[in-house]
Amino acid sequence: MTKPLILVTNDDGITSPGIKALVEVAQEFGEVVVVAPDKAQSGMGHAITLEDTLRKKSVNLFGDIEAYSCTGTPVDCVKLAVNVFLDRNPDLIISGINHGSNASVNVIYSGTMSAAVEGAMEHIPSIGFSLLDHSIDANFETSKKYVAIVIKSTLDNGLPEGVCLNVNFPKLGEAEIAGIKICRQCNGNWTEEFDARKAPSGKEYYWLTGVFMNYEPEATDTDIWALDNGFISIVPVHSDMTAYNTIDTLKNWKLG
Amino acid sequence: MTKPLILVTNDDGITSPGIKALVEVAQEFGEVVVVAPDKAQSGMGHAITLEDTLRKKSVNLFGDIEAYSCTGTPVDCVKLAVNVFLDRNPDLIISGINHGSNASVNVIYSGTMSAAVEGAMEHIPSIGFSLLDHSIDANFETSKKYVAIVIKSTLDNGLPEGVCLNVNFPKLGEAEIAGIKICRQCNGNWTEEFDARKAPSGKEYYWLTGVFMNYEPEATDTDIWALDNGFISIVPVHSDMTAYNTIDTLKNWKLG
Predict the structure, then answer these.
(1) How far is A134 from chain B (nearest CA, A)?
(2) CATH at A76
(3) Which residues in chain B are contacts of A234 at CB distance < 8 A?
(4) Per-residue pLDDT for A256 more than 80?
(5) DSSP H or E segment with residue A67
(6) Residue B151: in which H helix or E strand, if any?
(7) pLDDT digit string (tens) for B206-223?
(8) Which pLDDT score is estimated for A193?
(9) Structure confidence at residue A51 (pLDDT)
(10) Minimal C-alpha gap between A193 and chain B (Å)
(11) Number of H helices, E strands in chain A
(12) What is the pTM of this model?
């Protein structure tokens, strides 16, 4: 029996500790190939490279495991891996472990999750993993145990066509984890506060900063609620962005 | 009565003919401010600039209209405009007119549409407009007539919280347009065919190319069907990517 082929990618770049943790877990389940960005690509969303070329470099960062760093975005990495580098379709694509949350609306800004969404769009079961800890020396040990559980369940059960998983881990030790909760994406957003500064030339420039606002703090079925209450959150995600409940409203508009 | 404030942006860059066409229509409806990328940002999706600064430049490209080019992505432009540059909240954000289709899954790759989605996330009625013609000298005259109709209806009716519109125009003259159709996002994707080449150094590099595949060619309620049949397509779009019909499936998984 052929071992499952597992493609690993991320958005923090191929040298980040989070992807190393993910590769270590993935090895228990099959043959692993890593194709990840050569630099940090956080906040790249579903960006692809249309106006430039893409290059890859073979890297020796994961022992015996075949690994390539790429010049493009996380979505580019998935496209290149599936369509060019791999000689058969992967059985699973996993992305992360991201240093920082991808819960709620972060899913739409996240390169980690966009790689998983792209995997689902390419008909491959895909999962994005994120830990609510931005620090470079985040401790992934507890996350790794649950990554294994989610990978095993996904390989056993499969995923519906076009659907991937958004898995977020609270920054907690194993004894404090309340369990795993299946959720929906919380309705919330970042309230931006741009930091405006002056360059030595006198010209203004801006840094994006912000504070997350939960628009439905009372709801108990959201990923933010789960994480705030010590649970690991899993949200099924797809690429259909149609606001179905607005279709009838629009049909009543007089559009000439 | 204060005239509506209309923010105009795009992803093809502030010098593209498509944004000029959009500004010309917007002027009929209110006070217009343009904040758009200083270079082409096609395929940038919902990318934001986290690791670099953002700069703006006042430009004189649209007669008397206040206009700024920005170093960031289309989503950065919306965030900066709403949170820094404008002294009151815009009543409408319009993005485009994109040179090329943003129907079906293009919505997720598109900087044009991501700007509109970001507008909706900031609680502002927002619309992305695209013409199915990639050429730099595309004819926007017919599109402009319908842009006016959609802007008027949106200002008159408003849009539900968090919802924006994805409007695509077929490449047809006015006499050939079959009408306007409210649709859902077609299920389809790009089949990638990377063009692998060798640099003079002997190293390989890749260009992303692809062919669009419609996974549901029989369905008549999709944006692709509408456009293929001479209609202007309007899809309501939101940022909730939850695959709701998979939640119960996942709740039946044994997750330890």
Answers:
(1) 13
(2) 3.40.1210.10
(3) 250, 255
(4) no
(5) strand A66-70
(6) helix B141-157
(7) 999 989 999 999 999 999
(8) 80
(9) 86
(10) 7
(11) 7, 13
(12) 0.95
Instruction: Say which DSSP state B175 is in.
Output: G
Identify which of A60, A83, A117, A70 has the alpha carbon closest to the alpha carbon of residue A235. Answer: A117
Nearest to A171 by CA among A95, A94, A97: A97
Q: Looking at the partner chain, which of B204, B236, B247 has a beta carbon nearest the beta carbon of A184?
A: B247
Of the residues A157, A246, A247, A251, the best mutation for testing chain B's interface (the one with the most B CB atoms within 10 Å of its CB) is A246
A13 touches chain B (CB under 8 A): no
Query: CA B163, CA A130: separation in Å to the nearest integer?
Result: 27
Q: Please state whether B149 falls in left (phi above 0), alpha (psi between -120 and 50) or beta.
A: alpha
Q: Is the pLDDT of residue A1 over 80?
A: no
Contacts B196 to A, Cβ<8 Å: 84
Residue A230 in any domain: the answer is: yes
Interface test with A, best of B58, B238, B241 (most A CBs within 10 A): B241
Residue range B73-102: average pLDDT?
96
Mean pLDDT, range B222-234, rounded to an integer? 98
pLDDT average, residue stretch A81-106: 96
Q: Is A220 on the interface with B (CB under 8 A)?
A: no
Domain range holding B178?
Answer: 5-185+219-239
Total number of domains constituting chain A: 1
ipTM: 0.95
| Mean pLDDT calculated for residue range B177-189 | 97
Measure the CA dihedral B28/B29/B34/B40, to 10°: -80
Nearest CA in chain B to A111: B47
DSSP 8-state assignment for residue A156: H
Residues of B in contact with A247 (CB under 8 A): 182, 184, 236
Average pLDDT, chain B: 95
Q: Which of A50, A80, A255 sits opposite B206 (nearest CB)?
A: A80
* Pairwise CA distance, residues A170 & A167, whole Å: 10
Alpha carbon A236 to chain centroid, angstroms: 12
| The pLDDT value given to residue B1 | 66
B239 to chain A: which residues are within 8 Å by CB? 105, 108, 241
For residue B208, is it within any domain? no
Q: How many CB atoms lie within 10 A of CB A70?
A: 27
Whether residue B46 and residue A45 make contact (CB cut-off 8 A), yes or no, is yes
Q: Which residues of B142-164 are buried (b: 16+ CB within 10 A; e: fewer)?
A: bbbebbbbbbbbbeeeebbebbb
Verify whether the Cβ–Cβ distance A153 to B254 is below 8 Å.
yes
CB contact under 8 A, B237 and A243: yes
**Residue A136 in tokens:** 């470079």
Q: How is residue B112 written in tokens?
A: 């044009």
pLDDT tens for each residue of A158-198: 999 999 999 999 999 999 999 999 999 999 999 878 899 99
Out of A54, A153, A235, the one facing B242 most closely (by C-beta) is: A235
CA–CA separation, A232 and A235 (whole Å):
10
User: Which among B50, B160, B206 has CB closest to A42?
Assistant: B50
